[in-house]
Amino acid sequence: MMLTLVRHGEPERDVVAAERGDPPLSAMGRMHMAEAGRLVEADGYDVVYCSPLRRARESAEILVPGVEPVIDEDLAEFDRDAQQYLHWEDGAGPYRAYLAGDLSPWGTTLDEFRARIWSVVERMRRDSLGGRVVAVTHGGVINNFFAMLLGSEQVSLFQPAYGSLNRFLYRADEGWTTMELNATAVRPEEPLFNS
Questions:
Q1: DSSP states along 90-139
Q2: Per-residue pLDDT averaged across 3-12, rounded?
Q3: Predicted local confidence at residue 129, as pLDDT
Q4: 105: domain range?
Q5: Which Pfam families match (predicted)?
Q6: CA–CA separation, 163 and 19 (whole Å)
Q7: How confident is the model at residue 19, as a pLDDT?
Q8: Does residue 178 sit within a domain?
Q9: Number of neighbours of residue 99 by Cβ within 10 angstroms
Q10: Helix, coil or strand: residue 13
Q11: pLDDT band per the 50, 70, 90 thresholds, residue 141
Q12: How do residues 95-140 score in pLDDT, each as one tens digit?
């Protein structure tokens, strides 16, 4: 089985109060997903799963137009019941708790969150019959799945980019192997390394 976890596109920042907990995609977020769609189309897929959160559902519509994804609650981010979406890159205070492994500000625990992630990954693996699965999800889900594969207690090992593809291969005789992290069709604006 090849599992591709795709992070949703960038959410809108300036939204009405009713949308603050689950904002729609921004124009840039739509571009992220259109570009990611080129990569998904090149690789192909057998089934598409999606988080129920709006930013993920809208991302899936752009990523794989005309495909009805399987919505799975366990693909939702740890902040799924928050009153306001906080952009990770803004360095919001509550993320200090998250980085320390404390998910209590979001009404859950790290163990509960990771159990949800493992549960949905196992369902997708079991149901895929060795095929190619694409799942539109969130940065925390991707980071914690990767951390579990490494046996790490850390909740953030890298920063999944908006619209990034993160690929994991499962073989019955070997288990899970990380194949690729943070693949995007758009180059970063700033150089990754200074010469």
A1: GT-THHHHHHTT--GGGT--HHHHHHHHHHHHHHHHHHHTT-EEEEEE-H
A2: 95
A3: 84
A4: 2-183
A5: His_Phos_1
A6: 21
A7: 62
A8: yes
A9: 11
A10: coil
A11: very high
A12: 788 888 888 888 899 999 999 999 999 999 999 888 999 999 999 9
Order of all β-strands in the sheet with 47-50: 70-71, 47-50, 132-137, 2-7, 165-171, 175-183
Which CATH number belongs to the domain containing residue 90 in this structure?
3.40.50.1240
Structure tokens that stand for 69 in this block: 């994804």
Please report, for residues 32, 115, 156, 172, the alpha-carbon distance to residue 93 in angstroms, rounded to integers and kept in the order given: 26, 25, 15, 41
Name the packing angle between helices 54-63 and 27-43 (round to 10°): 50
Structure tokens at 50: 């999606």
| Joined tokens for residue 87 | 């952009």
Using the structure block, give the residue that is written with the tokens 């899936």: 60
Residue 138 lies in a domain: yes
**How many whole angstroms separate alpha carbon 167 and alpha carbon 5?**
6
More confident residue, 63 or 189: 63
Q: Count of domains in the chain? A: 1
The reply to whether 191 falls in a domain is no
Residue 3 corresponds to which tokens in the numbers above? 């599992």
- What burial class does residue 109 get, using C-beta atoms within 10 Å of its C-beta: 0-12 exposed, 13-18 middle, 19+ buried? middle
- Checking if the pLDDT of 94 tops 80, the result is no
For residue 192, is it within any domain? no
